[in-house]
């Protein structure tokens, strides 16, 4: 297993990592995962892809932290990096 520990303490896991040859003849990291066929297969990756996974995971952690800090609000949903809260209209 290849593990990447995020600042939140959460861990990203990659199953059975290997250094292999990519389609261009260079070296690349491969790991097992669910591919486009919806079956377990060896997936080829590269440095920027791991960085993207880390950035997305940290962004998710930040969104969850924000939602916990807004627990006194009525959150009705979130899309990507935005929260929506329910507005309660009160008649005067």
Description:
- The protein has one helix and six strands.
- The mean pLDDT is 85.
- The chain has one helix at 47-69; strands at residues 2-5, 11-21, 27-34, 40-45, 75-79, 82-85.
- Strands 1-2-3-4 form a four-stranded antiparallel β-sheet, covered by helices on one side. Strands 5-6 form a two-stranded antiparallel ribbon.
- A hairpin with a 5-residue loop joins strand 1 and strand 2.
- Helix content is 25%, strand content 41%.
Brief rundown of the structure:
The protein has 92 residues and is of the alpha+beta class. The chain has one helix and six strands.
Topology (elements, then pairings):
Layout: E1 2-5, E2 11-21, E3 27-34, E4 40-45, H1 47-69, E5 75-79, E6 82-85
Quaternary structure annotation:
single chain
Rg: 19 Å
> Kindly, what is the distance between the CA atoms of the first and last residues, rounded to a whole number of angstroms?
61 Å
Structural class: alpha+beta
Taking the sheet with the most strands, its summary is: 4 strands, antiparallel
The overall strand count is 6
Average of pLDDT: 85
With strands numbered from the N-terminus, the spatial order across the biggest sheet is 1-2-3-4
Indicate the proportion of strand residues.
35-45%
Shape: elongated
| Unreliable sequence segments | none
H-E order: EEEEHEE
Q: How many H/I helices?
A: 1
Approximately how much helix is present in the residues?
25-40%
Main attributes of the structure:
92 residues, alpha+beta, 4-stranded antiparallel beta sheet, two-stranded antiparallel sheet, 1 helix, 6 strands, 25% helix, 41% strand
